[in-house]
Design a protein that fits this description.
By secondary structure, this protein is α+β, with helices and mostly antiparallel strands. The protein has a single domain (about 5-25, about 80-255), classed as Jelly Rolls. It is about 20% helix and about 25% strand. It contains 5 helices and 15 strands. The chain has helices at about 5-15, 25-40, 90-95, 100-110, 185-190, and strands spanning about 15-20, 50-55, 70, 80, 115-125, 130-135, 145-150, 165, 195-200, 205-210, 215-220, 225-235, 240, 245, 250-255. The strands form 3 sheets. Strands 1, 2, 3, 4, 5, 7, 10, 12 and 15 form a 9-stranded antiparallel sheet that branches. It has a 4-stranded antiparallel sheet with strand order 6-11-8-9, with no helix packed on it. Bound molecules: 2-oxoglutaric acid. 2-oxoglutaric acid (AKG) binds near residues 121, 131, 148, 216 and 231. 2-oxoglutaric acid binds near residues 121 and 229.
């Protein structure tokens, strides 16, 4: 049985994103939360040398967040971002749920699908780093990923820095020259009072499918509890990172099915 209707995909195509609600049990979401806290506190049996771990900024300014580099940076819940979670069995079990494969196949068909990144995004309690408006695209890739699967691990609200999107903004690349899809300050200012600007208020465990070109950003956390999320960007496994002249992914997440044309 399909998880999605034609109306779901029509709404996705119109808005550039689709809220699909919860797809896993509270116990599963709690397990992801426990696992990421263990990873941050240095007590998970994972290879920390393989994980990109970035500390949160002390002042909320994007440019002053810590370096995005491999390896553990101390036992603290004040990480902003942790990547390479596809290598972690707990996160991998979640991101390979059949509902996510069905969503990915809508974009990529029967080919092999890899993760460009499987990352934890965190707004620690009373902290967080302002994330300017951007599109999830990377100039170094030889083809653009189209789907990001975003799961709120905690309730996300305007007060704790939930994601904001510009509905319908996925049809055009705004700043193709930028290496990571960020808008210039002038471009971002044009969306300040845009009626299509929406704050994605989510309950813990709720999932949003996002077109990678949907403009989005997020604020800081003014509450006493963290706002954690898990974000998986899926792509054609054959995608090449031209900067390094090698495959952009680190292994296949969903294997090719049947006879796939070369
Ligand atoms: O969680 C956030 O604040 C932003 C996440 C994001 O930009 C993404 O998943 O692409």
């Amino acid at each position: 049985m399909s998880h999605f209707s034609a109306q779901d995909w029509a709404l996705f195509d119109e808005q550039g994103y689709l809220c699909i609600g919860r797809v896993a049990s509270t116990a599963t979401i709690d397990a992801l939360c426990g696992r990421i806290d263990d990873i941050m506190l240095g007590r998970a049996p994972v290879d920390y040398r393989r994980m990109v771990m970035q500390l949160d900024s002390a002042n909320g300014v994007y440019e002053s967040a810590g370096p995005q580099s491999h390896g553990f940076k101390g036992a603290t819940l004040a990480y902003r971002k942790i990547e390479q979670l596809e290598a972690d069995p707990v996160f991998r079990a979640y991101m390979t749920l059949p509902v996510f494969e069905e969503a990915a196949r809508r974009f990529y068909g029967d080919i092999a699908i890899a993760a460009y990144r499987a990352m934890f995004m965190n707004k620690p309690a009373r902290r967080g780093t302002f994330l300017p408006l951007h599109q999830d695209r990377w100039r170094a890739l030889d083809r653009d990923p189209q789907l990001t699967i975003y799961t709120a691990l905690d309730r996300a609200t305007p007060e704790n820095g939930c994601v904001e999107v510009i509905a319908g903004s996925h049809r055009q690349l705004l700043n193709p020259q930028h290496a990571n899809g960020f808008l210039t300050a002038e471009m971002a200012a044009r969306f300040d009072n845009d009626p299509r600007r929406r704050k994605l208020t989510l309950e813990a465990g709720e999932v949003v499918l996002m077109h990678n070109w949907t403009i989005h950003g997020s604020g800081i956390n003014t509450t006493d509890t963290p706002r954690r999320a898990f974000s998986v960007c899926l792509m054609d496994a054959a995608t090449i990172n031209r900067r390094y002249d090698r495959l952009a992914g680190r292994g296949v997440i969903f294997a090719a099915r049947g006879d796939v044309p070369a």
